Amino acid sequence: MKLHDVVKALGLAVRSGTASLEREVTGGYAGDLLSDVIANSQSGALWITMQVHVNIVAVAVLKDLAGIVLVEGREPADETLKKAAEEDIPILSSSQPAFETAGALHAILTKSP
Fold it and tell me: Is 113's pLDDT higher than 90?
């Protein structure tokens, strides 16, 4: 599923990476511990987190993630937005908690065609 379809289905706000919304989302990963995301996320996953600092961009680049979803209405730090623009990493925002966001993502990614 394309990232722009996920954005629409989940009602996410795009904070950076508008030009990269054609990326394919192949799964999801929810976690706030950066080392856990590095160890366990898969390329193409959409990362759901409450972290807003610049290091999330480095992790997304390292793991070739489709993008980052900040939950509970959190907004990225200015430095994070700048780095995300440089690295072409989509940062999205959800007003929902991580649990609901992950559940909704799972539902749309596993829906029968």
Answer: no
